[in-house]
Amino acid sequence: MMSAVLYGGTALAVLVSWRLDPERTRRALRIGAKSLHGLVPRILGMVALVGLVLALVPPELIRKLFSQGGVAGFALVSAIGSIVTMPAPIAFALVGSLFKLGAAPASLAAFVTTLTMVGVMTAPMEISCFGRRFTLLRQALCFVTAILIGLAMGVLL
């Protein structure tokens, strides 16, 4: 239902924009199409990788790994989540699949936090843009925050 509202609102906004300035709307749609064209291969690759991991890793191992509590358990799942940075829509779909396999919500909170905010594999690119000190400090703070979020979710849930 929510998707229908969002798509409908977007279509209405495009129609209003088209009525006000068709050339500018056409240019904006071209830019959006180019952006989507660039994103599709990456998103499909990540979806394939997530599917492969879920197919190869036994559900019992996932359940056992994501059921460990405490600082050590959250640090472990956060370290796994820190390996690669993922866009939120893919990360949330992955976490939903892990939850259906029996993973604990608190561990998943720590995992998704690092999955979306920390990226060891993308750190060199980030260092080239923002510098080593900023990148290391940002990623370390995000890692610690993920563990704290996991602990807080463990208390609240």
Short synopsis of the structure:
The protein is mainly α and 157 residues long. It has eight helices and no strands.
Helix and strand layout, with pairings?
Elements: H1 2-20, H2 22-56, H3 59-65, H4 70-81, H5 88-100, H6 105-117, H7 123-130, H8 132-156
Helix pairs in contact: 1-2, 2-5, 4-6, 4-8, 5-6, 6-8, 7-8
Q: Can you tag this structure with a few keywords?
A:
157 residues; 8 helices; globular
Task: Write up this protein.
84% of the residues lie in helices and 0% in strands. α2 packs parallel to α5 (88-100). The model has no long low-confidence stretch (mean pLDDT 89). The chain contains eight helices and no strands. It is an all-alpha fold. It has helices spanning 2-20, 22-56, 59-65, 70-81, 88-100, 105-117, 123-130, 132-156.
Helix segment count?
8
- Contiguous uncertain segments of 5+ residues: none
Q: Indicate the structural class.
A: mainly alpha
Main sheet overview: none
Q: From the structure provided, what is the oligomeric state, counting identical versus distinct chains?
A: single chain
Radius of gyration: 19 Å
- Mean pLDDT, nearest integer? 89
Number of strands: 0
Shape: globular
Report the β-strand fraction as a percent range: under 5%
Secondary-structure element string:
HHHHHHHH
Helix content range: over 70%
Distance from first to last alpha carbon: 27 Å
